């Protein structure tokens, strides 16, 4: 998913796979050898997927094909299909465990890694027997090249703005599953710290909510190497106890930018808030999001805010809590909306100018 405001992780390469200009012998149609660049931080999602992509292109390529991982389909194939006590199976399991750690998710056996053919137009060349490349799925909207690996272990630079003639497989994180797990971590951590809204309405009564009737995110272009992103929102207000209360909501339908969606989704529930006001910050799960770090950062920032008897906007506190890395290679911030109320209605442009949504008050009646 391409977005004008959030950018994603710059694709990194491992120094051990670097080749000098004098040794770059990749076929002309593959693109020039990629120059050595700064390696992704050890243990990061980018480093893990990059390392696995290099192995799938090289020593694990035959095993991956036999396991049915490298197909002509653009649909993501779970790498967990590589089961058993084989080099491929062990490599995938190790990488999956490392990705869970990097994303601050529990080690519950969940497999997040997938691989797919990057673009449908590459299937014909694949059918003709053209040797494919394998890359770690890049996430930087402004990257000019995508670094892939060939069978000989060389790094190959591909243009980011046009579909390569040579087939490319992309190793990615299943962001849908990651977001569902991550929201659980956020809610659990915030609840343990007393930062979750607690509904106080009696069963016989009802409450006001904000209904999202339409939403659109701006779009520049959709590069060949981008898959769909997963969007979620953090809404915050003051709970009945005077502490900041934070809730999360997923927007799984927001697959494409430049397209208007009409979800009629309840976005903010005011039943657990002291005031009839709340703020909203929209985020993107791009594969590199660490939910444990996000939850701890939110906790540390928001526990210091005290209710002074009047509503205080919380967007800035949430944004300031985001790790510094999210504003360089991995800024998952999409947009924000200040002071939504129980009476807010109409079309609202986000503060960052990236999102536009239409909302209306909605009365939630009891059964």
UniProtKB/TrEMBL annotation:
Residues 1-30 form the signal peptide. InterPro entries: DUF3103. It holds the Pfam family DUF3103. It comes from the Bacteria. Keywords: Signal. This is DUF3103 family protein. It comes from Saccharothrix variisporea.
